[in-house]
Amino acid sequence: MVDRIKAYETTRTNFEATRLNENQAIKQEEVKKTQVQAQEKQTGARTVTSLSEEGKLRSDAMSALNKVPDIRNEKIQQIKNQIDNNTYNVPPEKVAEKMVNKILGFAGK
Fold it and tell me: What is the mean pLDDT of the chain?
């Protein structure tokens, strides 16, 4: 269980780093757009810009990621309730498998 939590935390950290990088890229694009608009206003010229297909996909992906909750509260509450009611059960085979894997150095399995 601890390995799963650590793996989840690592995945979450990587996810957050990716989200941060994507947000920074989006902000840079917005700053660039604002600069172009300001320049157009000063010169009276118009620049035609369009998002690439990749840019559109990234934007859609970021919107979807921002809607995903950071923590699976339902799952956490379910496990807490099981622990409180003494109904939380981990099969002994799984515990033994994790112990053997850890001893043999197969921590991720």
Answer: 80
